[in-house]
Write a structure and sequence with these properties.
Length: 120
């Protein structure tokens, strides 16, 4: 009977150790899920959260402006293209740190409008 009890407790201990290792590997996997991509772009998780949120809110705003423009073509005539050019400038590093679009950056949409005006 004593041998059975020892074997039983050894199995419980083994399962406990295996479960603990599994928990550690799950935590490590979860941590990797949240840090692999941000580190691949030289950012911490918090930096990536800020930057991705910044881009996302600008894209949502531009998308809303485009939807309004679809119904009222006289509104937000260049907002979508200006926002795309502005975001692209940040992604490629031409515009430096993250800032709101200004009159100077909205002029980046001009070549798009000029080329369509020349064609038609």
């Amino acid at each position: 009977m004593r041998d059975r009890q020892q074997a039983f407790f050894q199995r419980i201990e083994l399962l406990s150790v295996l479960g603990h290792k599994r928990k550690r590997s799950n935590v490590a996997m979860l941590k990797r899920l949240f840090t692999d991509h941000p580190s691949s772009v030289d950012e911490t998780y918090r930096q990536h959260l800020f930057v991705a949120s910044w881009y996302g809110t600008r894209m949502l705003g531009a998308g809303l402006a485009c939807l309004i423009h679809a119904v009222f073509p006289f509104l937000f005539v260049r907002t979508g293209s200006a926002t795309i050019n502005h975001l692209h400038g940040h992604m490629t590093g031409r515009l430096g740190p993250l800032t709101a679009p200004t009159a100077n950056t909205s002029a980046a949409a001009a070549p798009i409008a000029d080329s369509s005006a020349q064609q038609g």
